[in-house]
TrEMBL record:
The lineage of its organism: Bacteria, Bacillati, Actinomycetota, Acidimicrobiia, Acidimicrobiales. SUPFAM superfamilies: CO dehydrogenase flavoprotein C-terminal domain-like, FAD-binding/transporter-associated domain-like. It comes from the Bacteria. The keyword Hydrolase does not apply. This is FAD binding domain-containing protein. InterPro entries: CO_DH_flav_C_dom_sf, Diverse_Substr_Oxidored, FAD-bd_PCMH, FAD-bd_PCMH-like_sf, FAD-bd_PCMH_sub1, FAD-bd_PCMH_sub2, Mopterin_DH_FAD-bd. Residues 1-160 form the FAD-binding PCMH-type domain. Pfam families: FAD_binding_5. The keyword tRNA-binding does not apply. Coiled coil: none annotated. Keywords: FAD, Flavoprotein, Oxidoreductase.
């Protein structure tokens, strides 16, 4: 992680919010994203470990994932659908999976996050301190409000899910991936690798409006072809 100016470990949300209201203060969750370089900076990190935000609890069909719950704990929780457990395991190697958190994964909004795509199709809602709760789709589009802290993400655990991915090797981050979920006769689809963030797509016309980026792994045209093919496979798997 970059060399930081100070480290804070508040004992309650009120103190954490007060710290984040100060300039150059940022949230430290699992620590897998604040690692860009080793240059000295003015950043002061606010560690959320002591706030008790790691519980995973069920309430009917919905499951509430504490923001500090790790992807490893999600993958092993009996409250999580098997298909989402599988995706949680595939998100990163075990060493990072046991550090990376639900809240950090949401806040980072990586366009290649299979886990985030799975939350999107699971009708996820984000609970926050310092800001109103909102749908995950809205937060992915606009980002976490300044000074707010993600406290939990709730999902609908009903229905069936499926995914389809293409990568250079099985161990690589997918070039493009499709995740689908069917519940109450309705199918929801999300794609990764086609925009700066994962996107919800029309299962009947998944490439509509997409303008994928191009890089050394594939052209925009190639990613569009993958999006179409993988969407069909994921939707079929989710039936």
């Amino acid at each position: 992680m970059p060399l930081v100016a100070a480290y804070h470990r508040p004992r309650n949300l009120e103190d954490a919010l007060s710290l984040l209201a100060e300039p150059d203060h940022v949230v430290l969750a699992g620590g897998t994203s604040i690692n860009a370089d080793r240059d000295a900076s003015d950043i002061e990190v606010v560690d959320l470990q002591a706030l008790g935000l790691d519980a995973i609890v069920a309430d009917g069909n919905r499951v509430r994932l504490g923001a500090m719950a790790t992807l490893g704990s999600v993958a092993e929780s009996g409250l999580i659908p098997e298909w989402l457990q599988t995706i949680s395991r595939a998100e990163s190697p075990s060493t990072l999976r046991n550090l990376a958190t639900v809240g950090g994964s949401v806040a980072t909004r990586s366009g290649e996050s299979l886990f985030l795509a799975a939350l999107l199709v699971s009708d996820a809602h984000v609970e926050m301190a310092g800001a109103d709760s909102q749908s995950l789709a809205a937060l992915v589009e606009h980002g976490v409000p300044d000074g707010a802290i993600i406290t939990a993400v709730s999902i609908d655990a009903s229905g069936t899910g499926g995914e389809a991915i293409t990568g250079r090797t099985p161990a690589d981050v997918p070039i493009v991936a499709a995740v689908a979920r069917t519940a109450d006769g309705r199918t929801t689809l999300a794609l990764t690798g086609v925009a700066a963030t994962p996107v919800l797509a029309d299962p009947n016309n998944p490439t509509a409006g997409l303008r994928p980026p191009a890089d050394f792994r594939g052209t925009a045209e190639y990613r569009l072809m993958l999006a179409q093919t993988l969407s069909e496979r994921a939707v079929e798997a989710a039936r």
